[in-house]
Amino acid sequence: MKTVPLGTDGCQVSALCLGTMYFGTTVEDSVSFQILDAYAEAGGTFLDTANKYASWVAGGQGGESELLLGRWIKERRNRERLFLASKVGLPMPGVPKGLKAVVIEQECEKTLRRLGVDRLDLYYAHADDREAPFEETLGAFDRLQRAGKVRYFGASNFETQRLDEARRLSARQSWPAYVCVQMRHTYLHCNPRVPLEFTAQMAVTPELLDYCKAENVRLLAYSPLLGGAYCRGDRPLPEAYRGPENERRLKRLSEMARACGATVNQVVLAWLMQSQPAAIPVVSASSPGQIRENLGALSVNIKLNMESSSYDDQS
Ligand SMILES: NC(=O)c1ccc[n+]([C@@H]2O[C@H](COP(=O)([O-])OP(=O)(O)OC[C@H]3O[C@@H](n4cnc5c(N)ncnc54)[C@H](OP(=O)(O)O)[C@@H]3O)[C@@H](O)[C@H]2O)c1
Questions:
Q1: 177 or 199: which carries more pLDDT confidence?
Q2: Is pLDDT of 149 > 90?
Q3: Angle between helices 288-295 and 29-41 (to 10 degrees)
Q4: Ligand 1: does its nearest atom lie under 6 Å from the Cβ of 66?
């Protein structure tokens, strides 16, 4: 699979990341294994999980996705071929919200145990915590890196200014800096005045896109397919993605799909990977057929000349 840089020290990661949020809960084990196998067979190595996945599902406690990945990694004996990302900072049963050092240190150990590995490749602050000083959070991340438990750090659901403040502090203190930021991002624009279903979630903003370009911070786009809403009658568009401007964008999307001989989902993913700044979609699937369709986006060239720019385009 095509790879793209993460950070500035030569690290390369898969251009398409597989989200595993519901693996081991609503997506049963055997199907999760099939999806993971299909992604790995396509050369994909970048897997996204979190300590919290999926504690909100009926009967869920959190940790199910990491445990499922741990079982798959053990069975396939493929740890060294993978780039494993997890997250800390959102509440789940027995774990408070936030980025206090003690929570980070305890949760990192639990995540490593559930995955059955001794090192994470990427560890995200799952959401900003204005109550924990950056010094405390970044100091804890520094200790994890020095102990060889984590290679890189990322931020998720952060405002641009806070991300910048944190990165400046890391540079001053020689602590690991956030090399990437994971936000809600898709082809349709998210109306910032309409609340999202999950309150911790934040959509990308024009300021953040500029920041990522200027500062070489890699952008990861979560929920890129809006849970299937681009193509499924049973999945209405979330309210924040409705309105006349998005109607125009949906039309444009259908035209691009026809011109490229691709599905609308593939064009959305290809557009994210090919626009500026290029994003890594964190896409999921609940069946092997879905992941195969989504992987097809890697060979779609959407001819960016059809699309003038990434966010401001009003066509
Ligand atoms: N950082 C954060 O705060 C945050 C928040 C949310 C998600 N994430 C990460 O992002 C990943 C993806 O998030 P997501 O699941 O919300 O996003 P998504 O990729 O937009 O949606 C995935 C869902 O869309 C449907 N789908 C996928 N491919 C399809 C296809 N080809 N045709 C029709 N339907 C299709 C499936 O729904 P059905 O299951 O109903 O079939 C699938 O479960 C997660 O796994 C997680 O790793 C991060």
A1: 177
A2: yes
A3: 20
A4: no
Report which residue type is found at 282.
V
Selected from 3.20.20.100, 2.40.100.10, 3.40.50.2000, 3.30.565.10, the CATH number assigned to the domain covering 3-306 reads: 3.20.20.100
Q: How far is the CA of 24 from the centre of ligand 1 (A)?
A: 14
Which amino acid makes up residue 99?
Answer: L
| Minimum CA distance residue for ligand 1 atom 24 | 227
Nearest atom of ligand 1 to the alpha carbon of 290: 31
d(CA 309, ligand 1 centre) in Å: 25
As a whole number of angstroms, the distance between CA 281 and CA 218 comes to 11
| pLDDT tens digits for range 114-139 | 999 999 999 999 999 999 999 999 99
Q: What is the pTM of this model?
A: 0.96
User: How many Å lie between the centroid of ligand 1 and the Cα of residue 223?
Assistant: 5
Q: Tell me, what amino acid is at 140? A: A
Q: What is the mean pLDDT of the chain?
A: 95
Ligand 1 geometric centre to CA of 142 (Å): 31
**What is the rounded CA–CA span in Å between residue 184 and residue 177?**
21
